[in-house]
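ingest -> validate -> predict -> emit
validate: passed (alphabet ok, no gaps, 141 aa)
predict: started
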Amino acid sequence: MINALIEAVSISLNGEFGDGYEIHMEEIKQDLKEPCFFISCINPASSLFLGKRYFRENLFCIQYFPRRQGHERAECNETAERLFKCLEYLEVSGRFVKGTGMKYEVADGILNFFVNYDIYIQKKETLPAMEEVEREITAKG
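emit:
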């Protein structure tokens, strides 16, 4: 489910910002082309809710690396405003998930935008495989 949420965040970012912004889901060691986004899920948690239902807490950090033109803080603030709007609702596996607890901080010229996508999931019951059954049948006649 986390990968589906990451994909939905990526689609929403692309819809809001367009193709001029690269969106990364894996860490980039070098040759980072700015402006770009980096999406990560931080410390996901799962707890039993009721029966076979589980509550999944998924805190995401979307980092934005602005253009280096001397106005990084202003660009980060403008980007954060757009993120509040475009990440409020995501469509994931045919249902909408609301982003909660949205907040951001700008540190070292990089925007760190935090949002929770908490969901309930139903654990699928797995039935044990059937064993072999032997039966002897005799026919009369």
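The first strand starts at residue 22 and ends at 24.
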